[in-house]
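Project outcomes to date are best conveyed with an example. Our students and postdoctoral researchers have been running inverse folding experiments weekly, and each run begins with a structure described purely in tokens. The record below, which covers 395 residues, was selected by the lab manager from last quarter's runs and is presented without edits.
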């Protein structure tokens, strides 16, 4: 079956009620048929559910679907995307290990690597997204255990060559850990390039409507086994209700991402032609410095567009206040178009030089393009640009 069919037809085994829509197992715990069965379940000589912190049928259905979409062997769902990012590192790294990462990371992922893992004696080396293969190779040390990256990155839309990193990780026996949130499994499958672990904030496109939080890590069984132990003991469990919402949402993921990407490309193209927009960045625009790489490893450019305006935060504020359709929020991945200024929101905790290194300026605006009529979006954004220019001139 094709992936879209798998996302729709994969469900929890039907109960004796013969339901067509998958049920919601909203329970904290599960009973045993006998004391012997309870003993066997805890000894892991028999498979089954014990406690929803460990496993739950509704959560497992969501995990199974993502594994099918990402072509992975196993997975673990978590309460949030950052819980998934953290677990994918903390479960597999120990004091004395070294991690190589792309510098272009979501702010909280950066804080985990630089502020939390470093307290445990885990060191790191950052490289730019466009670093050469020899640069990445040179960053590998005798104690390097993992390579971690986002592609496309948040918010700069920088891409990393997955095939290149896959070769390096295979050569040095490193864990290749990829955050695939911005592309989603509908547009990019890192396992095709040798990824061992794939991380998602399910809060974003897997939900797609801004309703629930969730995260997931899928990948090779040998690594997921360690993650499952870590999560079972530390408790970042996904709620069954959130898993039910996310599992149903995966049934429309491919349709939504197709429309998201189509709208994003049209909006980016229109804004790139506007003389008062300093810069537009989108992976499937030919002006993107890694356009050819994007075409090689993605089937479409995704839903995120960034633009840069002259005039600093005051100009940004004028532009954002002039928008009539788009929402102002630090979230992304919604049916509704959302804008934010990363400099003052998602990456506010970074030092000025760190922001500069990632291309995060005061005038940068991240646009999570939704599913509205694209002509309405183009009109709204064009009008906001022009209003902000007039306000800037008047001031």
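After processing, the design step wrote out the following sequence:
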């Amino acid at each position: 079956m094709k992936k879209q069919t798998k996302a729709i037809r994969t469900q929890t085994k039907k109960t004796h009620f013969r339901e067509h829509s998958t049920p919601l197992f909203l329970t904290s715990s599960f009973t045993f048929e006998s004391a012997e069965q309870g003993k066997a379940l805890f000894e892991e000589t028999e498979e089954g559910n014990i406690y929803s912190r460990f496993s739950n049928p509704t959560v497992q259905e969501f995990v199974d679907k993502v594994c099918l979409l990402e072509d992975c062997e196993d997975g673990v769902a978590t309460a949030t995307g950052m819980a998934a990012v953290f677990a994918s590192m903390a479960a597999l790294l120990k004091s004395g290990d070294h991690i190589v990462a792309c510098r272009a990371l979501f702010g909280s992922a950066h804080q985990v690597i630089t502020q939390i893992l470093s307290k445990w004696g885990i060191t790191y080396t950052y490289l730019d997204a466009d670093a050469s293969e020899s640069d990445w190779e040179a960053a590998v040390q005798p104690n390097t255990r993992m390579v971690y990256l986002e592609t496309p990155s948040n918010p700069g839309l920088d891409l990393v060559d997955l095939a290149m990193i896959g070769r390096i990780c295979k050569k040095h026996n490193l864990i290749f850990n990829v955050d695939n949130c911005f592309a989603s499994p509908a547009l990019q499958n890192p396992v095709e390039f040798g990824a061992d672990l794939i991380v998602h904030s399910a809060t974003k496109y897997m939900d797609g409507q801004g309703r629930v939080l969730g995260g997931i890590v899928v990948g090779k069984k040998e690594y997921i086994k360690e993650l499952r132990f870590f999560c079972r003991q530390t408790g970042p469990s996904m709620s069954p209700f959130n898993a039910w919402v996310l599992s149903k949402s995966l049934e429309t993921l491919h349709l939504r991402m197709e429309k998201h990407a189509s709208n994003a490309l049209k909006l980016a193209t229109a804004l790139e032609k506007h003389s008062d927009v300093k810069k537009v960045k989108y992976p499937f625009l030919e002006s993107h410095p890694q356009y050819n790489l994007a075409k090689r490893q993605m089937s479409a450019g995704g839903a995120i567009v960034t633009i840069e305006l002259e005039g600093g935060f005051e100009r940004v504020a004028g532009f954002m206040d002039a928008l009539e359709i788009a929402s102002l929020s630090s979230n992304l991945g919604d049916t509704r178009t959302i804008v934010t200024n990363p400099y003052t929101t998602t990456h506010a905790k970074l030092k000025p030089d760190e922001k500069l290194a990632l291309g995060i300026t005061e005038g940068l605006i991240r646009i999570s393009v939704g599913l509205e009529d694209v002509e309405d979006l183009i009109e709204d954004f064009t009008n906001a640009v022009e209003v902000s220019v007039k306000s800037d001139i008047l001031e």
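The radius of gyration is 22 Å. The CA atoms of residues 186 and 257 lie 7 Å apart. The training component of this project remains on track.
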